[in-house]
Amino acid sequence: MTSFDNRFSKDVNDSNLKGWLVAVLELGAWLGVLLTGPVADRLSRKYTIVAAVGVFIVGVIVQVSAMHASSIYAGRFVTGIGVGSLSMAVPLYNAELAPPEVRGSLVALQQLAITFGIMISFWIDYGTNFIGGTGETQHEAAWRIPLGLQLVPAIVLGVGILWMPFSPRWLVNKGRDDEAIEVLAYARNLPREHDLVQIEFLEIKSHKLFEDELSLEAFPDFQDGSFMSNLKLGLYGYLSLLSSRPLLFRVIIGGGVMFFQQWTGVNAILYYAPSIFTELGLTGNSTNLLATGVVGIAMFLATIPAVIYVDKLGRKPILYSGAFLMAACHIIVAILTALHANNWDTHKAAGWAACAMVWIFAMAFGYSWGPCAWVIVAEIFPLSVRGKGMSIAASSNWMNNFIVGQVTPTMLKNIGYKTFVVFGVFSFAGALFIIFLTPETAGRTLEEMDEVFGDSNRTAAADAERLTRIHKQLGLDTFEGRDVEVGSEKEDSSKHEHSI
């Protein structure tokens, strides 16, 4: 926006500084992801969300009141810490509180909500862009208002979560079993003595005993509960992922999927869409922001069929088809830009064709790598290391997000159309990575994943045997196959076994 450029012209127009202005938020998010695990275990998922919202609000206030670029940089970094923390804590809380039969839907719904938020934010920017005019008369409220509007959902989340229950999984971990049963009964709207409530409680309890047994066997010297012992448990737990070739291979797949998700260039498009549309010949802030708004709509609408069909079509076909389509869009944009970068005015049709390719790219990402990358990462790790494996993948996601955000302005300035060639090549390589290295996870059990990764130790099979023994120890096996009524419907209790 013109008023933003005028306020910070010396610090945002340089391509390198502009990259840092955008990417510093992702750097903060990366740090937030790393900090969230220990904090969520100690404070609870609920209060971790409150704390993350508080950090986020501080960052927003610093940005809204900024008179110098340093405040924007600092505010975005602090805001990023909150964003990264929430990106871990909120899905964790949802997964641990929701009944098993809707947990899969919530994963897809989260991605749909993210794309909905992106779409709304683009159109808010388009609307506020007209405050005081779009040129030199534009008022600073044009950019301060959308920055300030971030406070609204943050406050709703931070205050609203106070009326929500604690995670039953966290309560069990803290030895507060009676409270955990109360929360499960509340979430189900069933009496605490109901079979489904008891089944879910015993499943959570068995998972806790499962982790305690693994920890005691692997690290008997670090069980005194002290800070240093807990720190060493966490460190050695991560190192164990590197000591086994099959586990290391899973880490490479998880980190690689997130690497290629970011290097498709999706966030280069989302962060710099107005600048890119300017490069493609669309002049005027309002026109650029209008075209950017279409990106948000395209991505949101394309995510909807992914939510519906991800389990029916499989992960791999969706991912590599999306990658090939994104690669084609990048290459077409690169060709059009190479031919007409200096004469878009006389080749308006080519400019609009390039814009259409950007919109198609957004749709391709929306139905494929947006939701499916997270799904496949969640399914490749055995139970005993899933949390640590997922955290590594999330860290890879945010770090590559940061790198892409930082280098994109410099790439656009120095190599022009070749920027799209680079992202096109990475998109194509991502498709090959999925086809030749990444296994299909849809419909496969954890034991079958052992075979896929050549795990001679049968990590998942051993996990399953251990879990079965613990189930019997707790009496959970007595519920197996029993039909239990929920309102006017009946459910087979065996379907809840997947909730672990």
TrEMBL record:
Catalytic reaction annotation: myo-inositol(out) + H(+)(out) = myo-inositol(in) + H(+)(in)
Domain of life: Eukaryota
Membrane topology term: Multi-pass membrane protein
Localization, UniProt: Membrane
Matches recorded under PANTHER family: PLASTIDIC GLUCOSE TRANSPORTER 4
Protein family (similarity comment): Belongs to the major facilitator superfamily. Sugar transporter (TC 2.A.1.1) family.
Gene Ontology MF annotations: carbohydrate:proton symporter activity
One Gene Ontology cellular component: membrane
Protein name: Major facilitator superfamily (MFS) profile domain-containing protein
Residue ranges of domain Major facilitator superfamily (MFS) profile in the record: 1-442
Extent of the signal sequence: none
Origin species: Sphaerobolus stellatus (strain SS14)
Any Pfam family hit: Sugar_tr
Keyword terms of this UniProt record: Membrane, Transmembrane, Transmembrane helix, Transport
InterPro entries: FHA_dom, MFS_dom, MFS_sugar_transport-like, MFS_Sugar_Transporters, MFS_trans_sf, Sugar/inositol_transpt, Sugar_transporter_CS
Transmembrane segments: 20-40, 47-66, 72-93, 105-124, 144-166, 247-270, 290-310, 317-339, 351-381, 420-438
Coiled-coil regions listed in the entry: none
